[in-house]
Amino acid sequence: MERLQFKKVLLILLMLVILFVLLTITNLFASGYIKRIVIGLGINIILVVSLNLSNGFTGVFSLGHIGFMAIGAYTSAVLTLPILLKTVNLPNLFPWLGNLEMSFLPAALIGGFVSMIIALLVGLPLLRLNGSYISVATMGFLVIVRVILINWDTVTRGARTFSGVPSYTTIWNVWIWVVLTTYVVWQLKNSSFGRQTMAMRDNEIAAQSLGINKLRVRLLAFCLSAFFTGIAGALWAHFIMSFSPNSFYFTKAFSVITMLIVGGLGSISGSVVGSVAITILSEVLRNLERSFNLGFIHIPPLYGASQVIMAVIFILILVFKPNGISNGKEINFLKITKGPFLSRKQKEVF
Amino acid sequence: MTSFEFLLQQGINAISIGSLYALMAIGLAMVFGILRLINFAHGDLIMVGSYTTVLLMGAGVSFEWAAIAGIAASTITGLVMERVTYRPLRGAPEVAMLLTSFAVTIFLENLAIILFRPTSRPFFLPGLLNPVLEFGHLYISGLNIIAIIISVILLVFLTLFVTRTEAGISMRAASQDLVAARLMGINVNYVIATAFAIGSFLAGVVGILWSARVGKIDPLMGFYPVLKAFVASVIGGLGSIPGAVLGGYTLGILEILLQGFLPPALTSFRDAFVFIILIILLIFRPNGILGSSERDKI
Amino acid sequence: MQMLKLEQVKVYYGHVQVLKGLSLEVEKGELVSLLGANGAGKSTTLMTISGILHPTSGHIYYEGQDISQLDAKDIVRLGIIHCPEGRRIFGGLTVLENLRMGAVCRKDKSRFQIDLDEIYSLFPILRERRKQMSSTLSGGEQQMLAIGRALIAQPHLLMLDEPSLGLAPIIVQGIFKVIRQLHEKGITILLVEQNARQALTVADRCYVMETGNIVLNGSSTELGANPEIEKIYLGQAPEAGKL
């Protein structure tokens, strides 16, 4: 047993070292384009891993998590926006806010915490629901967030682009958060809390009869995942530097969910793999949307083509490999955890 | 215009919109009842039908035939959707089905964007079908009356279908207890296909009426209608056909009331309100306003 | 010839193996009862025969034909009718509509009214309540409706799953009287019951199941006298009708 522990720790250290080396090489030698992809990938991993905490572990399939990303992004952006820009772009901002200009880390953390608090408020009524009802309700949350963002224009500039966000996101701070998020979620999964969530996911009634408090477990997972999603939002805001409420709507939500499903619900390593796969695929497909020449045939830009293809891939995965690349389990050597959740073997007959 | 005339006009408006919501909600209810699937792609059937109609009219086809073709296109699309994406997923957990319906929505919407550009196109209704009826100071759009008449006719036929025909009764049976229905030898594939066919047909009809009302079409036009249809379904009790009808008209009336009495500053929040109503319903009355507040029984 | 024969049938429910190599036979005209405690796999056995579940290995033969992988609707059309546990009538449909559903699988619909009258003579209360919503019926009436609905389907092999479940003793007597009548008419019946006492009064032969397998079988008289059964199933079985 001790040897296994030792081996595991060694393995993790090895992976971290490899990651460090890869990131250093990328930072020093890679083109700006590649660097941007690596940063984007890191943010996606944070989004997917934190979504897995809520959707994959507790069976609460939230469709509105991007709402938390938006909250984190806007909060951090408003807090860090240089005062000069604030007077120009957000002239009617509350005076205490208008004179505030924070540095990145506190702003991002506040963004995460605001998301978490809102998650608490939203989760208290919603997380009592079940199945599809929760999903639709969280979708409602996303719509409501968007409506608020569009209408609260003293703070958010409404539907107009929010620009001028200082560029604080680097490869390093993104990936430090990636490691942090993955670590936290991993630890949770393998703790007694993690076991409780899995128990609840698989057989709610049995779990409750064992004294597991459904609402509390769900709420904890939901809020924590909202925190990290908010952080990801902040990181994203300072990466892309200008955005609008449309950046945080169903397109983004679907993209993150695709990564989650492709990777496999309930599997953290699956989430990482899924994010990598879909991020790269998206890039490739995005190039398809530019017009290009196929010999003497000129193919015009096909806006929306990447979405169509992603949708097809998504459906194919759900039909043929519903537990994703990872099959719902953690990949290879590490502890094999709870098996397939989306299994379609002979189930609910009675 | 007297306040009575105003009320009458708004009342007709409300019933007309309510009819459209009701017809949409029935399609959702039928499918949910049997499969426990919330088919978000149902909204895109509106889009498919409308685009077919507009394209055919653009090619010189008369309105009546273009409309019939549009409705047929919706119906066929619905059936294909069922056969290709939902049938392979039978038995999958609810979440997987819900996500799939999203994927289908995204597929159809983006396909339309590729084929037709994201900008909207006008939808022309021949003047004959949209007279403006004058009663003194009262102006009533003929379209509203037509929508109401068509809806009532369809509802009558539908009621006869589900109460008098074997196929209709089988559908009700299947939505109450799918296993027991199978044990009676009911061909579940046929029943599900029928539910999709009827629902899609209704969506096609709604498509024409809705586009005529709004005056234009665009690839994303199905999003809000299906959302509202869903809210209507929940109001009446998900899965229940009479509930869908009740919910549809209730929502129509509610919407007109909100429109009339909401302070102008808040009208842009109207969509959020729809969802807030939905969420409140889901929390307190998940089985509809007539149903119990019990959630899943063991 | 055996009408129904199960050979080494193994069935999984999710990841759990419920039937572990089950074999049994039913001859034409017999009333065979399948006994056992809760969770033994009796309902699963019926569900597998009727095609809702499918065996992962083993075979099910009906009049010589292998029906193991057939779909439920085809099995119903062969004449195997399963009246499920808990009645499972269509609560939102009227009594008459429920009975109409029983006739869905029949090729010959012209005799429906005649057969309906026969059901009404067997269960007069159903005629009285025919326009009523079936969810408003009492437990015993619902059971009669379930059996009536199964009978309208013109079964060659009728499978009844726990017809006495949740019913008062006097109603149970009535139900079993009907079962006896059906047996006398020559319908082959496979009866699953937790109430072993009642089952032994009507069955020709019984199988006793325990966790996915047959552990005892024999004629009712043999088993009735068997102390094993006395101990396990009659001594500890709940009184008829109480749960």
Give the SSE map.
The complex is a heterotrimer of chains A (350), B (298) and C (243).
Chain A: H1 2-29, H2 32-58, H3 66-80, H4 83-89, H5 95-98, H6 104-126, H7 131-151, H8 153-156, H9 171-189, H10 192-202, H11 204-209, H12 214-240, H13 250-263, H14 268-288, E1 292-294, E2 297-299, H15 305-320
Helix pairs in contact in A: 2-9, 2-12, 2-13, 2-14, 3-6, 3-7, 3-12, 6-12, 9-12, 10-12, 13-14, 13-15, 14-15
Chain B: H1 3-35, H2 42-58, H3 63-86, H4 94-116, E1 121-122, E2 132-135, E3 138-141, H5 142-164, H6 166-176, H7 178-183, H8 188-214, E4 216-217, H9 223-236, H10 241-261, H11 270-284
Helix pairs in contact in B: 1-5, 1-6, 1-8, 1-9, 1-10, 2-3, 2-4, 2-8, 3-8, 5-6, 5-8, 6-8, 9-10, 9-11
Chain C: E1 2-13, E2 16-27, E3 31-36, H1 42-49, E4 57-62, E5 65-66, H2 72-78, E6 80-83, H3 95-102, H4 112-122, H5 124-128, H6 139-152, E7 157-161, H7 169-185, E8 188-193, H8 196-202, E9 205-210, E10 213-219, H9 220-225, H10 227-234
Parallel strand pairs in C: 3-8, 3-9, 6-7, 7-8
Antiparallel strand pairs in C: 1-2, 1-4, 4-5, 9-10
Describe this structure in words.
The complex is a heterotrimer of chains A (about 350), B (about 300) and C (about 240). In chain A, about 70% of the residues lie in helices and about 0% in strands. With about 350 residues, chain A is mainly alpha-helical. Chain A has a two-stranded antiparallel ribbon with strand order 1-2. Chain A is globular and about 55 Å long. With about 300 residues, chain B is mostly helical. Chain C has helices at about 40-50, 70-80, 95-100, 110-120, 125-130, 140-150, 170-185, 195-200, 220-225, 225-235; strands at about 1-15, 15-25, 30-35, 55-60, 65, 80-85, 155-160, 190-195, 205-210, 215-220. The radius of gyration of chain C is 17 Å and the shape is globular. The interface of A and B includes residues 129, 318 and 349 of A.
Largest sheet of chain A: 2 strands, antiparallel
User: What is the rounded Rg of chain A?
Assistant: 21 Å
Total beta strands of chain B: 4
Helix/strand-derived class of chain A? mainly alpha
